[in-house]
Amino acid sequence: MNDALVVQDLRAQIGDLQILRGVDLSVPFGEVHAIMGPNGSGKSTFSHVLMGKQDYQASGSALVGGVEIMGLTTDQRARAGLYEAFQYPTEIPGVSLDELTAEMAFSNPDDDGFEARIDSISERLDMARFRTRAVNLGLSGGEKKRSEMYLLGVAKPKVAILDEIDSGLDIDAVREVASIVEDLRSPEVGIVLITHYSRILRYLSVDAVHVMVSGRIVKSGGPEVAEELEGSGYVEYQTAEAGNLASLG
Description:
By secondary structure, the protein is α/β, with parallel strands linked by helices. It contains 8 helices and 12 strands. It has one domain: P-loop containing nucleotide triphosphate hydrolases (Rossmann fold, 3-Layer(aba) Sandwich), CATH 3.40.50. Strand 1 and strand 2 form a beta hairpin. Helix 4 packs antiparallel against helix 5. The protein is globular and about 55 Å long.
């Protein structure tokens, strides 16, 4: 099994509004893939549909480590090995980070390395001072993203979906978050990084870049794709897809 994530013909809509129009994507274990696209292209919908958010009517196939997750509940998808780091991490008053990871450990009784992993990742990410505080409460944007990366490392998923984790960060925080993502890269996880901008990719060794426009991946390639977008933007792809949609309609 070489692929952490295999998505085939993933479609999603809300009412009559079609958002995803047949997404195909494969992410091997050990690789970091970026999905880039303009606002409204379906990038966040893609992550929400994979995690099982109930707002959408969805179809298609999504395999996490070879396990079909479509039709499973969100908690079942998480147990299958899927993890999402949010663009806007949730604050949880009254629940400390240690209490949250204790609950994670309770839900994974067969994971013998859980406690050792907590200590190791806590030290690596310098999280000791945050672990007794309420989850994300009173933290800066960069600190919240660090907390998300800590939970990602502790969870040790097969697939990590990082939904615009660079959003709202200054350049130093972007560099730090990118460094953490690199530290968490391993042969046991495939990472999907969703972003508008190429700046975070300057600090990451990205294996592939996929361009999403109007609910489809319209181009895939190496890091050079992000460099092309930096110069030309998405207009060419948006115009082409608008023509495709018009011909279908």
